[in-house]
Amino acid sequence: MPFEAYLPVSGETGPLLVLSVILLAGLLGGWLARLCRAPGVTGNILAGVLIGPTVLNLFGDLDVAEALRPLSTFAMGLIAVSVGSQLSYRRIHNALRRIIGIALGEVLVVMTLVAAISRAIGADWPTALVLGSIAAATAPATTVALIRENRAKGTFVKTLLSVVALDNLLCIILFAFTSTILADFSAREGDFSLVYALGHTAYQFAGSLMLGVGMAAGANLMMRRMHVHDFSLIFIAILLCVGLSQYTGLSPLLTALFFGVYLGNVAGESTRELKALDPIELLLLICFFTVAGASLHFHNVQEAGMLCVGYLIARFSGKMLGGWLGGRLSGASPRSRSNIG
Length: 341
Hints:
It is a single chain. The chain starts with 14 loop residues before the first helix and ends with a helix. The chain contains 17 helices and no strands. By secondary structure, the chain is an all-alpha fold.
């Protein structure tokens, strides 16, 4: 009997094998990118594109994004906690006017531009509003990864991270409102209920706020009173935040943001608590960006056509113009308002 007959080989591509290949490809891609003096994030994404369906298609018909969705969701929750912690009143109270001005400026300008151009290209108004709401976001994972990689510090970095946190808070609220309108618009064949959309948005905001703050308060109390291992407790708390948010129909990202905001503002050893997951953060970021690259289907980009081109141009322009305008009106320094976009 051949030796292979004794081996327990199933022939299936399991999630552990997928994860190991994703991490290895991401690590190598990031290393090569840094050798070329490019951000490691760029290398992670390009490595994902290389092993994904567009080039090598290592995983065949397997949907990598779906197979690793729980891990990607947890990674986004962890990054949202880190970004939310930047909204510490002790750190930003002197710059509050500047941060709010920049965030509101870029969100309003980019949403208006993207919605208007999407509508001009041919999208209906509800779809255009949803696209505008999505465009308001600023990728927290990319921002945090680049700051960590470059070990950047200072006033500009503090402003940037705070603006990113506000951007995403505003984006999730806007998206909850506009996506409800779009779903109602489709279900009612051209009609929608404004009251229902407002109610759904209020549920998303209030529910995520209560869940995020409640989980953070409980975790903080257990660490202070019971001296539980920081890493284990924060890990479980973020898992619960993300899992309960999905179960109750809330936004995991918004819940995690409020979790981070609470920990960033409570007295005591919040800094130590927030750094508890630093050892695995890099691996989660590598996984997140490599999966993003491996999930990219270029034929979808081609099908989007002019709407995709118009969205990108409007979003770039809106972020640059809105950031500069918000900074100018709020009295930000020339360096901040010129670079924040």
